[in-house]
TrEMBL record, chains A, B:
<dbReference type="InterPro" id="IPR051081">
    <property type="entry name" value="HTH_MetalResp_TranReg"/>
</dbReference>
<keyword id="KW-0805">Transcription regulation</keyword>
<dbReference type="GO" id="GO:0003677">
    <property type="term" value="F:DNA binding"/>
</dbReference>
<protein>
    <submittedName>
        <fullName>Transcriptional regulator, ArsR family</fullName>
    </submittedName>
</protein>
<keyword id="KW-0804">Transcription</keyword>
<dbReference type="InterPro" id="IPR011991">
    <property type="entry name" value="ArsR-like_HTH"/>
</dbReference>
<dbReference type="InterPro" id="IPR047796">
    <property type="entry name" value="SdpR-like_repress"/>
</dbReference>
<keyword id="KW-0238">DNA-binding</keyword>
<dbReference type="InterPro" id="IPR036388">
    <property type="entry name" value="WH-like_DNA-bd_sf"/>
</dbReference>
<dbReference type="Pfam" id="PF01022">
    <property type="entry name" value="HTH_5"/>
</dbReference>
<dbReference type="InterPro" id="IPR001845">
    <property type="entry name" value="HTH_ArsR_DNA-bd_dom"/>
</dbReference>
<feature type="domain" description="HTH arsR-type">
    <location>
        <begin position="1"/>
        <end position="87"/>
    </location>
</feature>
<dbReference type="InterPro" id="IPR036390">
    <property type="entry name" value="WH_DNA-bd_sf"/>
</dbReference>
<dbReference type="GO" id="GO:0003700">
    <property type="term" value="F:DNA-binding transcription factor activity"/>
</dbReference>
Length: 88, 88
DNA sequence: TGTATATTTAGACAAATATCTAAATATTTT
DNA sequence: AAAATATTTAGATATTTGTCTAAATATACA
């Protein structure tokens, strides 16, 4: 859980997740959208991967990144524990 | 939103939030539960306050900290946007 | 008014993080 | 096989973060 919050604690990484909502994208396509070097984006992608927020699939020389939304369930669950219970 | 993710990105701070679920607590009562100095806990509390995850109320020489769960709604909403929509 | 208690603020420091450039690896194309 | 393309890994550096001790502030009590 630690690693998920860590991965989410960066605007660039959150933006990457938002980008992946529509389509899977290659590392290069993702990097093009930022004024940050490719290696830096690669590092961000690595953190997202460590948190299992994204998965990868190699196709030829490209690596496609996809969103994995199942991890978010855990965080949502943790957050909702704080909300007062509704009756019924 | 940035600041909320930042506040949540620390095990000590998340534990403080969990402690506040049951009762409001003073800074001192919170600090007693950790092997960390009072000033450090005070700093964590400040970050939680900046994120509006907690509110404070002064009573005499004590400062009571309370959970504010409304902030979590925003984060939950952000996280749920990624989940594929269910067909009703 | 002076002392004890509760908490924060200030300043210092080590560890973690985001970024960069250069080099390495893997795949495709010519 | 060599060159081009896509991406990662390595190593360096500046910034941010969590922690500490010491000092400051605020309230209560004697």
């Amino acid at each position: 859980m630690n690693i998920v919050f860590k991965a989410l604690n960066d605007a660039t990484r959150r933006q990457i997740l938002e980008m992946l909502q529509k389509n899977d994208l290659t590392a290069g396509e993702i990097a093009e959208n930022f004024n940050i070097s490719f290696p830096s984006i690669s590092h961000h992608l690595d953190l997202l991967k460590q948190a299992k927020l994204v998965t990868t699939k190699k196709e030829g020389q490209f690596i496609y990144y996809s969103l994995n939304t199942t991890v978010m369930d855990e965080i949502v669950k943790w957050l909702l524990q704080f909300k007062p219970k509704k009756n019924k």
